[in-house]
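User: Sequence for Lipoprotein below. Tokens please.
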Amino acid sequence: MKKIILAIAVVALTLTSCKSTFTSPYSDSQVIEHSTQGSVTLRGTSDEIEGGKKDIGYNATKAAHKKALQQLFYFGFVGTDFKNPMIREGIGVETKHKAFFDQFWNGGYERFVTDSKTEFYDCEQKSKCTVATSTFTVNYNMLRKELENNKVLNKIGF
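Assistant: Structure tokens for Lipoprotein:
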């Protein structure tokens, strides 16, 4: 009898510990500070970026920024003032507004970044590879206005 109870307890513990949770590909991004109305400080971490020394740091920084901004756009940050996504249509909006997002991700977003500090880390198993963690402040109000002006977002209240 003791063996059966013990077996049931082990199975129950195993089943309760095997929770399936969805994690966003941007989940290593976070809101650091939101002390000023209209701006938010985010932290993003890039995936491994390979390339030559000349461009690798810039590309890794852009990738870290993109991950954090995409988290803000499409998922939001649970437990913060930005718990809801800015763009409720999801990442498919980037296909619908391809010309805008091509320009935006190629450096257009940098107009909304007022401060950026980036740390670089070498990849563990590859040479000429870097991972960047960037903490940066975004002018949220101006970014939202830009998205509204380009019909990516509807104006608030419309």
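The first helix runs from residue 2 to 17.
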